[in-house]
Amino acid sequence: MDKVIIAKEISLSYSNNETIINKANISINAGSFVFITGASGSGKSTLLKSFYGALKPNQGSLMVGGVELKGISTKKLNFLRRHIGIVFQDYKLVKEWTIEKNIMLPLIINGYDKGVTKVQVETLLKHVRLKHQFGKYPLELSGGEQQRVAMARALAHNPIMILADEPTGNLDDYSSQLIWNLLEGANTQLNTTVIVVTHHIPESLKVDYKHFHIEYGSINEVN
Amino acid sequence: MKSIKNHLSLVIALLSILFSMQIFIIVDRSLDAYKQNLVTSYSVIIVSQKRLSKDDIFAANKMISDIKELTPDNVVNRLNTGMDKKNIDFLKLTLPKFYKLSLEHYPSPKEIESLTKDLLSNSSIKKVENFSHTHDITYKLLLLFKAVVSVFAISILIVTSLLIFKELKIWQLKHAERMNIMGLFGAPVWLRSAVLFRLSIVDALIASAIAFGLFEYLSSNALILEQFSNIGISVMIFDPLNDFILLLGVSLVLSILLASFIVLGHKEEV
Ligand SMILES: Nc1ncnc2c1ncn2[C@@H]1O[C@H](COP(=O)(O)OP(=O)(O)OP(=O)(O)O)[C@@H](O)[C@H]1O
Ligand SMILES: [Mg+2]
Fold first, then answer.
1. How far is CA A199 from each of CA A40, A110, A169, rounded to the nearest angstrom?
2. Which of A20, A78, B145, B211 has its CA 20 to 30 A from that of B130?
């Protein structure tokens, strides 16, 4: 089985040097569906940041998509990121752009054709049930609606891997189900690797998944 | 409305720089024109024991542009109170020769000094009247004027630089978030900063266009033209081609520098 992520003995910390993840190991198969859980402040978001190269491990080896992230060049990192879709815990939508433009961002960066982009954005808005909000700016939307925009943006360019940080954190059951269906769909139909940080693993999920739990700086698989 | 506000602060900062720059250029031109004006009314008189050839005088210093021999008739006529003609002719012969020298440009005090020395090195020249006292006062006044304007222009430059620096920080904040998000999705630096460069170039164009309109208006304003003609000079207030190219160039360079600083100063946040 191809590994999309192999982390060996990685330690992660911010500039204040407090160790968040301590010599942890995790390996994730390409095309798998993975949940990461852990208490608030345990380092779930921190671990995701390392996966998309925003936070470099201060020790150990971290391979993502076959590339070692330690000392990776900006150019290679940009290339890698163009094939990852991220739903950030704080959404990170561009305030001065309409929601369509926000969803388009990965498509623009990947150089998609304008016509394709337009169709794709319309489809995605329909999938996340936001067609009626067309033309609005992020701050004119509710928190849950913004979260769905972030979800649509992460799916836009059919990435090989989706990293979703509590993608249903602000959603009611109905909208949460919508998100799970989308992630499941990407995983089963496009073989996208899906890594989700969450506090509640949905019971309705039909796909097989792996579950890792973060505690005291280490990552343990839960069976 | 929002987009106007986005542009306003940088446009104003750029405009004030362009404005002070053009004012400086106008003052410089006025001073040159005024000096050109002064040089026609300024001359040096030399007194020589014997008649001098013009070439000899020209050879003394390169600044001399014209030489006129002054006839002693005026002086002699004033003395002419009952002298007979023979004596007057004799007097005319023995009287020293006077020459009035015009100069190529309005001299600095140093140049006057060296001119005087050069002329006196000719042994027949007995006296050089350079009106240095009056000249000095005028010249110092010009220098003072130029100094005042320079200080004024420089202080505007400093104030606007601070303004632009502050603007830079605001921009950095305003654009950091978007640039960061674009980076997280793998946008190369040029794409991340494209908006920034487009904005700054547009602002530079707007500022130059406003400056162009303003100075075109001023250069045809009757009141201003009258001021200059009162002083007796004619000055090109705004050269629609050369000056505009300069204004445009300066504002483009400044705003692109500003944008580059922001791009270089941008760090991805974690
Ligand atoms: N940018 C940062 N700079 C410094 N420390 C940080 C930063 N972000 C997070 N931390 C610290 O790292 C630790 C782990 O944070 P992280 O965001 O990974 O937690 P989390 O597991 O995602 O929690 P939550 O479930 O609340 O989102 C926390 O103690 C936090 O204080
Ligand atoms: Mg988190």
1. 9, 32, 8
2. B145
